[in-house]
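Subject: Small multi-drug export protein structure
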Amino acid sequence: MEALVQWFSHNLSQYISPEGAVFFISMIPLLELRGGLLAASLLKIPAVTAIPLCIAGNIIPIPFILLFIRKIFKVMKKTKIFRGLIQKLEDRAMGKSDQVKKYEFWGLTLFVGIPLPGTGAWTGSLIASLLEIDIKKSSLAILTGIIMATVIMYVVSYGVVGNLVH
């Protein structure tokens, strides 16, 4: 992931401000807040500036996923081109949904909050939508998870990694 973060940081910061690059990276699936905070650390953006940018960037796609992804997937599955891809995305998300199914709010919070590959707000939102978890409950769980991930990634990015690269 760090190589991907470095690539995005380097290439985006040529066209937009470093802060804009961090905000954009935080919106990208797979990278999300984790990648945004790593990028901010690498770009030497102070944490007090980076954290709100990363949280905002990570939150923006969430309501759209929660509200519209099932409808979008339903339409896309009707086309031969996208059917396989959508099925694969749904299967992959549902394959990671056991703890969310079992513990709902806290399962979703931990799924989003513990920054491991394949977890995060995007996948958590997709799982919540596919499981038809109440939107208020899932939004609060995802926001709580984002805050948890922020704390963890702050320590990693500005503590451990920050000390290695500075």
